[in-house]
Amino acid sequence: MYTSRIAGMGKYVPENVVTNDDLSKLMDTNDAWIQERTGIKERRHIKKGDGNSTAVMGVKAAEIALDRAGISKDEIDLIIFATLSPDYYFPGCGVQVQDMMGIHTCPALDIRNQCSGFIYGISVADQFIKTGMYKNVLLIGSENHSGGLDFSTRGRGVTVIFGDGAGAAVLTRSEQEGHGVLSTHLHSEGKHALELSLKGPSTNHWVPQIIEENPQEDIPYYPYMNGQFVFKNAVVRFSEVIMEGLKTNGLDVNDIDMLVPHQANLRISQFIQKKFQLSDDKVYNNIQRYGNTTAASIPIALCEAWEEGKVKEGDTVVLAAFGSGFTWGSAVIKW
Ligand code: ACO
After folding, report:
1. DSSP code per residue over 71-95
2. For labeling, which of 56, 139, 202, 323 is most exposed (least CB within 10 Å)?
């Protein structure tokens, strides 16, 4: 059977840096609170008129990934696009990318698994490559959060943590056993769907109905998050799914060369690091600079870790995510 390996990665973040102090001018928050609770110092936001969108940023990251992989756009067999903030309600960003990049009529698939979207995408790509159906899969995670956040004090518990950006990977067929994606594990628990959600606008919650049914202080066309509940579930599920991945491969925490957790909150990453007693050089965090970029967070972090020489040939790399759905998952990769 074939295996799949990551042949190239790319990332793109908008130039516009938004600091905690910038947000303090818009809402009742402050740098000390944000840094203490989340670790975030700044994030990037699309600026009106800069030409960026979820799909556009995805293309920018994808072009770098393809170039580094040495694979032409004509060789792509499948596009997978993970996002919770698509440019359109329909169609998805996958087909937009296909058009913008001039890619032939290969299939394009959008994944709606929020912070776990990139891990779900790796798993889908891996299944298609393993069976021999496809050789090269372009996987993108991209988010334009800033376009849909509440920048008044009412939204401060959610708005301060999110940032915009995109990451991409080219997964390609390998015949080298024991290399590449060793395993993926995916989970979800729909009973907690509304604990971290955006109810509308949607077919169930169109804008006139939303306005009619809701007082001004509770507007469901901004994201809602039960922060502490999400946090408590995240630390448990992160740990479980990392161990599940390691055990499947006969590994333990000492075999991890680099853990790249979804960048939800620095406190979550630090909790996992402490629990598994991993040294600082074995956990990659960049939430301080980008905030939580949801489906883009793992590919941006993994790309940077690779660019900085912190992920090397032969390393055991573990990716793990938890987020809205709830959904969570892990991928164990021999680089
Ligand atoms: N600035 C100042 N004060 C604030 C802010 C802010 N930005 N936000 C909230 N507060 C206040 C609250 O009003 C509250 O005040 P009160 O005690 O007077 O009522 C106090 O700070 C504490 O609020 P909490 O919500 O309890 O703060 P918490 O320590 O839980 O931190 C946070 C909030 C950072 C959101 C945290 O709960 C968290 O990170 N949760 C998990 C996030 C996560 O993992 N998400 C999953 C991925 S995202 C996805 O899938 C889309």
Report:
1. --GGG--EEEEE-SS-SSSSS-HHH
2. 202
Angle at 54 between CA 191 and CA 317, to 5 degrees: 70
Is 303 a catalytic site residue?
no
Our answer to whether residue 45 is catalytic in this structure is: no
| Of the residues 174, 195, 215, the one at which a domain ends | 174
User: Which of 174, 192, 217 delimits the end of a domain?
Assistant: 174
Q: Rounded to two decimals, what is the model's pTM? A: 0.96
% of the chain beyond a pLDDT of 90: 93
Number of structural domains (the chain) is: 2
Host domain of residue 120: 3-174
Task: Indicate whether 193 and 245 sit together in one domain.
Answer: yes
Residues 152-210: tens digit of each pLDDT: 999 999 999 999 999 999 999 999 989 999 999 999 999 999 999 998 888 888 877 87
Residues with CB under 6 A from ligand 1: 29, 33-34, 37-38, 114-115, 156-157, 160-161, 196, 227-228, 230-231, 234, 264-265, 268, 292, 294, 323-324
The H or E element spanning position 182 is strand 180-188
Q: What is the pLDDT of residues 109-141, one digit of tens each?
A: 999 999 999 999 999 999 999 999 999 999 999
Protein residue closest via CA to atom 11 of ligand 1? 157
